[in-house]
Amino acid sequence: MRRLFVYFWIIILAGCCGKPGQIDRGAYLADSTVSSNSQDERIRFLVMHYTAADDQESLRLLTEGQVSAHYLVHSSPEINRGKPVARQLVAEEKRAWHAGESHWQGRNNINDTSVGIEIVNLGFREEAGGKTWYPFNEDQIELVALLARDIIHRYGISPANVVAHSDIAPLRKNDPGPRFPWRQLALRGIGAWPDRESVERHLAGRAHGEPAPVAKIQQALARYGYSIPENGLADDKTRRAISAFQMHFRPEDISGTPDAQTEAIAMALVEKYRS
């Protein structure tokens, strides 16, 4: 008798739920049984940041201030059941306010199409010889790598669309700075990195610091994704964009000088990822 009673209620509930693939939204039903071929993922970019604050202040700024990010990686990530913990502050399907005014590969307002990871790091301090940048620790980078690989896999983000905040906003931002281990992450399948042989081929025997045509570097960086003038002049906007590029791909010299090595790296990246 009890079995018959349960079966009776299953039939009633199935009738209330409507047909398979129909979602009851109160005043109407949404039918999802037929799906369009003309669609792709909203999330196309993964953006790395540093917080320029300690753990407590970083959490406060990202939850109570006018900025936010999808994830926060603390200076010493918590370990729970043997696994490092990343704080998720904004659901991935929601728009976090981490990129601000930004541009990459012909798109503006990168907040609309990205996931942002903030990493607790003080950034830099000003000294007599210039900026001294704070390092990241191994535990942070390991968690960033695990988190980034998962996001990249789920959304099919291409290597050249894993970027720094400074890449998408070179006139305003420096983060995550030249101490961020882009090459180390690229070796784990996270982000882009040029092939050494290609860089050497584009150098064509020139010294690394030899002056290079500004227009050629501007064209290569614009094709790769940067917002940069294409006027053949080493003006302030151009030098800042070049410096952002160097922070990502040649961190030992981020002066913004348009030299032969910078040109060769840019050409190698275009050849590998934008051809």
TrEMBL record:
It holds the Pfam family Amidase_2. Keywords: Cell wall biogenesis/degradation, Hydrolase. It catalyses: Hydrolyzes the link between N-acetylmuramoyl residues and L-amino acid residues in certain cell-wall glycopeptides. Signal peptide: none annotated. Gene3D superfamilies: Peptidoglycan recognition protein-like, PGBD-like superfamily/PGBD. It comes from the Bacteria. Residues 31-177 form the N-acetylmuramoyl-L-alanine amidase domain. One of its GO terms (biological process) is peptidoglycan turnover. SUPFAM superfamilies: N-acetylmuramoyl-L-alanine amidase-like, PGBD-like. It is an enzyme of class 3 (hydrolase). PANTHER family: N-ACETYLMURAMOYL-L-ALANINE AMIDASE AMID. Belongs to the N-acetylmuramoyl-L-alanine amidase 2 family. This is N-acetylmuramoyl-L-alanine amidase. It comes from Sodalis ligni. The lineage of its organism: Bacteria, Pseudomonadati, Pseudomonadota, Gammaproteobacteria, Enterobacterales.
